[in-house]
């Protein structure tokens, strides 16, 4: 019982830190791609203190290593889209877009995992559409591009999470994380020169102040490395239902932080709140419906 209480506390801290990433993305004065480049570099370097590279290479076959590196590319694209959406709109709108990840997962997972489509997942997914329509209709047109990029980020998150679920058969999750984040950094190293060459405006490669350096370290070490380790420890003592329900709090924590720290509530309309409520109700209904069906033996 004591271990379960500690696991809930650790998971809530991890989810809170995950939600804080959106705030830091808004505060750090770097472009989305450069910010992610620094994030995966610092995080990968910190993981070197927790793992042995030799063990990683021995733990997986060449095909598995290449597969996880490919998933790492999707992670990189997801984070670039996520922070790009924040720069193009704001943190609150981006976090609501990320709440649609469960809907995209309900469409992607049956294809990737070769499972049948669950009718209630599609119904909850359909509820998200009017919620997004309310948000788009009530926000300034200048933020529409940010909403589209935010939805693309949610789709990419659902895609790489489903692939991880399919291919992670080993218990060495830390090694997999290193492979994915390391390959994300290598991929962005290849993309960065083209970004610098084709950018119409000068690109800042280094943080402009000690404050930005501090935000970057918090983003990488606390909101990524520490949050991942806490979540990993917690999941060893919690059910899938409990962990999924808690993780769904991420956009809620993030939006509350955006209101408090960034005062984004001053630029949001009643339509945003109504649309966000519809989306969050659909997201929170999902694990409850699954639990109800499992209790009645309607699904495994």
Automatic annotation (TrEMBL):
All copies of domain EamA, residue ranges: 11-136, 145-284
Domain of life: Bacteria
Membrane-spanning parts: 7-30, 36-53, 65-86, 92-112, 119-137, 143-163, 175-198, 213-231, 238-262, 268-289
Keywords assigned: Membrane, Transmembrane, Transmembrane helix
Keyword field contains Transmembrane: yes
Family annotation (InterPro entries): EamA_dom, EmrE-like
Tagged with keyword Transmembrane: yes
GO cellular component: membrane
PANTHER family in the record: ACYL-MALONYL CONDENSING ENZYME-RELATED, MOBA-LIKE NTP TRANSFERASE DOMAIN-CONTAINING PROTEIN
Name the UniProt record assigns to this protein: EamA domain-containing protein
Provenance organism: Phaeodactylibacter xiamenensis
Taxonomic lineage of the native organism: Bacteria, Pseudomonadati, Bacteroidota, Saprospiria, Saprospirales
């Amino acid at each position: 019982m004591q271990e379960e209480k500690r696991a809930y506390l650790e998971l809530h801290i991890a989810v809170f830190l995950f939600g804080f990433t959106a705030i830091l993305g808004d505060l750090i004065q770097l472009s989305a791609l450069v910010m992610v480049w620094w994030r995966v570099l610092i995080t990968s370097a910190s993981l070197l203190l927790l793992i042995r590279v030799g063990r990683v290479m021995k733990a997986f076959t060449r095909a598995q290593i290449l597969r996880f590196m490919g998933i790492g590319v999707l992670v990189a694209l997801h984070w670039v889209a996520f922070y790009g959406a924040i720069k193009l709109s704001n943190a609150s709108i981006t976090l609501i877009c990320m709440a649609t990840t469960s809907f995209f997962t309900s469409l992607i997972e049956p294809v990737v995992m070769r499972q049948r489509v669950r009718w209630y997942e599609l119904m909850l997914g359909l509820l998200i559409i009017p919620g997004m329509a309310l948000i788009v209709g009530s926000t300034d047109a200048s933020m529409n591009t940010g909403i589209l990029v935010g939805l693309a980020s949610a789709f990419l998150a659902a895609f790489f999470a489903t692939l991880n679920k399919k291919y992670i058969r080993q218990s060495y999750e830390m090694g997999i994380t290193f492979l994915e984040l390391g390959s994300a950094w290598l991929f962005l190293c290849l993309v960065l020169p083209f970004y610098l060459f084709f950018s119409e405006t000068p690109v800042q490669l280094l943080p402009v102040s000690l404050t930005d350096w501090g935000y970057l370290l918090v983003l990488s070490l606390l909101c990524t490395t520490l949050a991942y380790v806490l979540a990993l420890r917690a999941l060893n003592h919690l059910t899938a239902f409990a962990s999924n329900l808690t993780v769904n709090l991420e956009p809620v924590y993030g939006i509350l932080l955006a209101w408090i720290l960034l005062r984004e509530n001053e630029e949001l309309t009643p339509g945003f709140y109504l649309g966000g409520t519809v989306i969050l109700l659909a997201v929170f209904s999902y694990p409850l419906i699954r639990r109800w069906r499992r209790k009645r033996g309607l699904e495994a």
